[in-house]
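Hi P.,

Sorry for the delay on this. The queue was packed all week, but I finally got your sequence through. Input first:
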Amino acid sequence: MYRQDSFFDLSGWGQVGLALLSAILFLLMVLLARRALRPFPIWVRFFGALFLFWLFVWLSPQIYYMYYRLVIPDLPLQWVIWPPRDPLKPLEILIFSYEQNLSAHGQGILGWTVILAAVPPRKQAGRSEG
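Then the structure:
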């Protein structure tokens, strides 16, 4: 399924670096959703998580392109993000119906993880955990 993915065009170290960059961005997004949305009601946390995911889908291609420029020096310096044209793209990614590649599937997993990190019930004051 993933044979034609650009991940496999990279060298071994390039793949390791890309996986590490993806893991760092994944953790940062989950921590951001967890910390930034914590004080809000559940509906705000849910829609806030969707908004954070939308921002990631829109802005992360530039981060990944800059990484590709490090491992493929012949790539030109350019912007690869533009104003969002398709507001439904993040929803298609969340239901895994966008593109069948590692990037889209990884983003889908990230989206669900961000939502789950943002919406767990908060501990109630005065409740003891035993």
